[in-house]
Amino acid sequence: MTTADLLPGTVRALDLALARAQATSRLPSVSAGLVRGGRLVWSGTRGTTGIDAPTNGLPGPSTQYRIGSITKTFVAVGVLKAVEDGLVGLEDRIGAHLPEIDALPAGGIGHLTVGQLLGQASGIQAETDGPWWERTPGGDFAALLPLLGPGALRHRPGTRFHYSNVGFAVLGELLGRLRGAAWHEVVRTELLQPLGMTRTTLRPDGEHARGLAVHPWADVVLPEPEHDAGAMAPAGQLWSTVEDLARWSTVVAGTSGLLSPATVAEMRRPQSVDDARNAAWSVGYGLGWQLWNVDGRRHAGHSGSMPGFVAMLRVDVESGDGVLALTNTTTGFGDLPATLLRTLAETEPPLPAPWTPRPVADDVLELVGPWYWGPAALTVRSRADGGFDLGGLAGRGRASRFVRATDGDGWVGLDEYYAGERLRPVRGADGTVSHLDLASFRLTRSPYDPDADVPGGVDGAGWGSGA
């Protein structure tokens, strides 16, 4: 167990939650950690790994576990980094980069976009047609190709969430082609080395846990097989540790420096949502990352499972707090990750950053304050990043965050109704801002200001009783 700057009561509560999960879920071993401010502030282990080792089978934060589908996040970030480098586009057809897919008989997946594959919205079948790929050695990409022709699609692309391991096998091949090396070598050089993740590998290396199945009705275990999944490996083969995944959590938190802030925001934006059973979605998928809507708070990360292992990486996007959990059993650890993250938030909520005065550009300062869309009251407030927020008074009205347009022509909305729309301040003869031109609307300093350019004009009688 390691701790840093946590109160003894918090550490005791976290240790207790871990011990209870190991006992009640009958976990052979479990290794977990919490990240705050980009560093591991608590880690704990329980049980034995099932392999004789210098530690006598006792796991630690550097003990490797298979992380299953968390592997997909490495593939996705590798592809997004290639997008930033201009090697591929999210709207590119996959067949344009993997021509052998285009050479398959009509009805295959060549028309699918890279973005659809990353967002689990491609409609490709979930699993392979052959033996259970997670428990049997796999072939190369040429052996996978027949699955990508006619009959590969289960749903119309772009219309619904459909989790596909096969789709990420294709993305792994794409990543390798873009960089001219095997996908896992690209991950190592482009992602792992810059973050100092020396204990994340394609196969187990050094101290690691043995994958086990726990009998449902008796306290006995059965070893699960471990192998190279070949072309399917990008869907779930990597091994890692709590310490390494703590570093990886900074990618989804947006503090790693591997991706631009704009790419991180796009990565965490829902591309598809799993709303089949609920009117309001609780689970979705971004560009290679799972998303959770937890009481109005966005969490991002990924779960992982392979025979003998279950893993979780999850970050509260607003606070940046993250949780990591690894176990060597096929059936998993229940709600342990959510419990650990909630315990940290409840027992030691982070202190807000202190307020300090800051400079505000003159062209922002002249916009702050009340505005009106017709009779609806709105407000403009400056932000620390140099932009401003437009929102309704008392929470009503259309809202958006605005940043400077890259071409210098006004401001551009980042989200909600005005995402991508242009806002231009319009000046009067005296040089002051008369009104704001926003997507054909006019925002004025008073309701239907007669001195502003209000479409349709303003009744000359002005405001009155209507009599």
Automatic annotation (TrEMBL):
Organism: Kineococcus gynurae
One Gene Ontology term of the molecular function aspect: hydrolase activity
Keywords linked to the UniProt accession: Hydrolase
EC number(s) from the headed UniProt entry: 3.-.-.-
Residue intervals of the Beta-lactamase-related domain: 19-334
DUF7586 domain ranges (all copies): 361-445
Record protein name field: Serine hydrolase domain-containing protein
Superkingdom field: Bacteria
Pfam families assigned to the protein according to its UniProt record, in alphabetical order: Beta-lactamase, DUF7586
Methyltransferase in keyword set: no
InterPro entries to which the protein is assigned, alphabetical: AmpC-like (IPR050491), Beta-lactam-related (IPR001466), Beta-lactam/transpept-like (IPR012338), DUF7586 (IPR056008)
PANTHER family from the UniProt entry: D-ALANYL-D-ALANINE CARBOXYPEPTIDASE (PTHR46825:SF7), D-ALANYL-D-ALANINE-CARBOXYPEPTIDASE/ENDOPEPTIDASE AMPH (PTHR46825)
